[in-house]
Specification:
Alpha-Beta Plaits; DNA-binding; homodimer
DNA sequence: ATTTTTTCCGAATTTTATTCGGAAATATCA
DNA sequence: TGATATTTCCGAATAAAATTCGGAAAAAAT
């Protein structure tokens, strides 16, 4: 299936990125098209996996997740074991992101916990159980100034 | 207004985090409640800013955003100017996240661009224009193994 | 130039959202 | 504790939206 996106698709993505719960009817009004035509496009964007999913952004503080940290993780062995290490990291629910990075550190991981104590727990209980982790370097976030999931949608 | 969340609220958050476009009717069926009652709760969660927004996760590759990088940015002056620097960074659309971090580096920034060349452009054109940036250290992501926005919703 | 495919429309139908009065359950407090 | 206030929920009515589908129009392919 073709993955090329025209201007209308980009408009849809822009509007839905800003508000995933916009009604199809409103979307159609914005685009000055029939609801049925817009719906067809949205379904196609979902099929093509251009749209990955619709998520709700929850205020972490409201559910007692006050601490955000980034952890650089160095793997002790070669490239082959990295994939395995990555999978193990990805399974930990508090870990939101796992990136395989260039350079001497193997992974950069984003993690959210209630507080410093529970981060410590996580590192002791979950991280230390993963084989081949040589070292970790943790960076604590004091304040998040910007946090958007939005991508920059090209104009055309 | 009270911000305490009961079990039903947490269930709603869990379901909506997984799929922001779930219909209120389906939500009500899952919770075995009347749609009107569920709607009332959702509205309240929005009012209380427990729910921040509903977003659509777009496959970055589909819109030619193939490069992901993290940049550590050191500010040359004291704490007071940091706020200003943060604001300037936050205005750059390609920068998705700006975190004020503990330690000698002042900020950790997450940035998405089309490719290495456009990241270079960004650094030359946008970053270098910001006063008081002493140094930057860029980490390129080779592969993203996990990328979730979901928080861990407590059971009770 | 013809055929095929895609995109769109509009109308019909099903489903959902929204509103609201009032009952039931909870919480507050004197 | 007992009375009062507040919150939560339901159910029914109505307004709005989603979904389906046949077929016209536009675009692309041959």
């Amino acid at each position: 299936m073709d993955i090329s996106l025209d201007h209308t698709d980009l408009q849809i993505l822009e509007l839905m990125q800003t508000n995933a719960r916009i009604s199809n009817a409103d979307l159609a009004r914005e685009l000055e098209m029939a609801p049925s035509a817009v719906l067809e496009r949205v379904k196609k964007l979902e099929q093509k996996k251009v749209i990955r999913r619709y998520t709700t952004s929850i205020n972490p503080a409201a559910i007692q997740q006050k601490l955000l940290a980034f952890i650089f993780i160095r793997s002790s062995e070669g490239f082959s074991c990295c994939t395995n290490t990555a999978q193990l990291l990805a399974q930990i629910p508090e870990i939101q992101e796992v990136h395989h990075i260039a350079g001497e550190d193997c992974f950069l991981v984003k993690v959210r916990t209630a507080d410093a104590a529970s981060l410590m727990d996580l590192m002791r209980n979950s991280l230390q159980k993963i084989p081949n982790i040589a070292s970790t370097k943790t960076t604590i976030v004091l304040e998040t100034v910007k946090e958007q999931q939005e991508l920059v949608i090209p104009k055309k």
